[in-house]
Structure formats: C-alpha cells, structure tokens
Amino acid sequence: MSAVLPVPLATTESPPGPRRVLPARWMDSAFEWLTRFFAFLVFSLLAAILVTLVIGSQPTLEKFGVGFLFSTDWDPVQEKFGALVPIYGTLMTSLIAMLIGVPVSFGIALFLTELSPAWLKRPLGTAIELLAAIPSIIYGMWGLFSFVPFMSDRVLPWINDHLGPLPWIGVLFRGPPLGIGMLTAGIVLGIMVIPFISSVMRDVFRTVPAALKESAYALGSTTWEVVWKVVLPYTRSAVVGGIFLGLGRALGETMAVTFVLGNAHQLSASLLMPGNSIAATIANEFTEADSDIYLSSLIALGFLLFVVTLIVLAIARLMLHNLARREGR
Fold first, then answer.
1. How many other CB atoms are there within 10 angstroms of residue 327's CB atom?
2. Cα Rg for the chain, rounded, in angstroms?
3. What is the largest CA-CA distance in the chain?
4. Residue 262 φ/ψ, nearest 5 degrees
5. What is the dihedral of CA 165, 168, 173, 174, to 10 degrees?
6. CA of 6: how far to CAs of 1, 3, 31, 118, 201, in Å?
7. DSSP track, 100-151
8. What is the pLDDT of residues 167-184, one digit of tens each?
9. Which of 40, 45, 176, 329 is most exposed, with the fewest beta carbons within 10 Å of its own?
10. Which of 193, 173, 188, 182 is nearest to 98 (CA)?
C-alpha cells in the first residue's frame, strides 16, 4: 500500500512585496538649512548695504544735520551740500513717468488680452518684452540725440505758448525750450517702465477665469465693463504690485536720466528747466569727489535713495495687504 503524501495547506499570506524605502531625512534637513541660509544671506546683504551707507554718510549728517534734506546748496569748493534738488528731481521725474506709463501699460495689456487678434498677440507681446531688454544707456543716447531735438523744436515751444499762460499750473510749463529737463526725463522714464508694468498686467489679466468674463458678456456687459468690473477687481493686487515695480525702476534709473535731465543743481518749479536726480548726481560726481565731506554727501544721497525705495515698497505692501483684507470680506 502506497504512502499518502500530506497535502500542504493553502496559506493566506501574500507574496513579499517590494521593500519600502525609508525617506532620507537628512536630505530634507540639509535642504531646509540650505534654503534658510540663502534667505538669511539676502537679509545679511541688505543689512550690510544699509550699515555701509549709514557709516559713509555719517560725516555729512553730523555736519549738516536735518538741513541737508532741505538745502539747495551744492558747492564742492566751499563744501556746502544739500539734497533738496536731487530729491525733487527724482520724485518729479518718477511721477511724470508713472502718469505716462500706467495708462499706456493698462491700454497695452487690455489690448493684448481682450481686443487683439490672435495673429498679433505673440509678435506684439514679444516686441514689448524686448523693450525691457534694451540697456538704459541706449535709451539715454536715443533721448539725447533724437528725442531732445524733437522736444526742443516741436513740443516745448507749443507747451510754453499754450500752457504757460494758464493760471495756477502755468508755472510748471514756462521756460526756454532747451529740450533737456525734467519733462523730457520723465517721458523717457515713462517709456522705460512701460514694458515692465504692461508685462505684469498682461500676465495677471490672463489669469482671470474665462467663465467670469463670459458670464459678464452674456449679461450684456461691454468690454470696458468686463475689464472694470470683473478683470480689475480679480487682479487688482497684482496690478498694484506691477505699478510699484515700475515706480521702483523709475526711482533708481541712472544713465537714461543722466543724459536728458540736464544735471543742473538748481531748483525750479518749471518742468522745462534742467534739474538733477539722486542717481544722476552720484553717477556724475562720484569720481570727482576729492574730499571726505564731498564723498560722504554722495553716499548720503545713496542712503536717501535707499530710504525712499524702502518707503515705496512699504507703501506697496500696505496697499496689497489692505486689498487682500477687502477681498477676504
């Protein structure tokens, strides 16, 4: 009689799967510390720049005090320096640039996103982005050799004759048609900031969901109503950020302003007269600073520009924060 072999019982155990790989915790920790290092590195560089400017401007602040901000003097021979003229020129040219750049940028972004035919969007958008890649010194050379003669021959005489006699605001438009001056510099700056602001506006306008715009059109809204009541409320935070980005560009511009502003340390209410800016003053006279107080005054101007830029950024952040709170309601 043959032996009966035992039949193995069926097991319910599943076959062994692939071995589970433990996460490399040390890699996560190293990445965290690396990113933290870069973040604190940027903060340290900012603090180092601020400390350097404060130390360098200390002799000027000790000698002139707060009067340095309100004095129109700039006499290297007698070592009398004041920052009012460069501050006024910087703020006025930046204001003119924003008055020109913001509406034009808004129109460009609106046309590219809502009105432009499909075949024109890409080449026109590329051309606008190429304007941002042009070096500032090229804008300055173009402004000096082409735009200044045009302003002197065609635009400024008309402004002087028709806007100069007006009450109240006429003082802003009186003066000889030299071509160079704060108005010309502001227009050149406006042309320079248009690519930055329009690119930001165009990109954020594209993020608006198509369903929102189509719903507004279905209710009978016009293109302007859709943009004003749908697109802008949806993107206003980013639009404000783009505007302040262009303002920061205008405040710190150097070479283009140096070519067309006139570099004159004189305070005049007329936009047709030559003036000066903080960045242009530093660029023109830094190599000529032959005394410690002269060099310290230029560094103090740099410190003032740093402070003005920080104030502008703080205002931008505050506006964005308020807009975000309103959106949350």
1. 11
2. 30
3. 133
4. 105, -25
5. 60
6. 15, 9, 59, 79, 81
7. HHHHHHHHHHHIIIIIS-HHHHHHHHHHHHHHHHS-HHHHHHHIIIIIHHHI
8. 888 899 988 888 999 999
9. 329
10. 193
